[in-house]
Amino acid sequence: MRIGVDLGGTKIEAVALGSGGEVLTRQRVPTPTQNYAGTVAAVAGLVRGLEDQARSRGSVGVGLPGAESPATGLIKNANSTWLIGKPLREDLSKALDRPVRLANDADCFALSEATDGAAAGMGTVFGVILGTGVGGGVVVGGRLVTGPNAIAGEWGHNPLPPTVPPPGGAAEDAIERPGPHCYCGRQGCIEAFLSGPGLTLDFRTHTGRTAAAAEIAMLAEGGDPEADACLGRYEERLARALATVINLLDPHAIVLGGGMSNVARLYDNVPRLWSRFVFSDTVVTRLLPPRHGDSSGVRGAAWLWPE
Ligand SMILES: [Zn+2]
Fold first, then answer.
1. Across all residues in the chain, what is the average pLDDT?
2. The whole model's pTM is what?
3. Residue 269 to residues 99, 197, 237: CA-CA distances in angstroms?
4. How far does the centroid of ligand 1 lie from the alpha carbon of residue 186, in Å?
């Protein structure tokens, strides 16, 4: 049995998977925010609860919005800030009396979709979460790619690549360079344009209107020309940003997750646009909606123990 835990900023969700990936049981609790010891206890409590229900002991993987520094073993880059600088893996291993694996939540998403999701059986897979933030993960041959900095796939904090040929419109230049501020301290990050809040900001900048990302997608579907143009800019920017990934990794598939993955038009429009930016005469990389959706966080965490 494999247990996966998705340690989010507002809730902690856990699932127990059988050997074929079937859900045996699942539980969720609110995250004890600002409380590190409480968070460790909550994760351990969820794992024990699942094991009691399933009458079996499992391996434990945990996904979180952040990463463990390979240099120090401490959590970094977490927006659940009370985890930063803490030896979370070590403390969970002690609390649960077994080794625990940790990974970034976008890595868990990619692993889930590459293992038995939308990109099952495909050789090289890039999984991207386009939600409140933008994160990514890389899976090659069924294994999550992890590196010495624990940042593989973190392409959301690269600058948005310029369009080619260079943008002629001065107005667009002014918006994209240096671009909106990002929480990481830089300006013009991919995340600042392609997150849900990034779409909302672009809509407000061009139209003076305020709408959440899902609302903008609905307005566009209903024929609102300003919302349609806003999504058009989003698609072209996403195509540019993903083209850099395609040039680097040459993935078989890119799977989208997060709230923006619900926008159906992306799957036709973005691949049509990205060939202009990819260094190849043909581009057969597939852009796919997720199979497991919101469940990919817990499922991917469970698959951190593939053996
Ligand atoms: Zn950034």
1. 94
2. 0.94
3. 44, 21, 11
4. 5
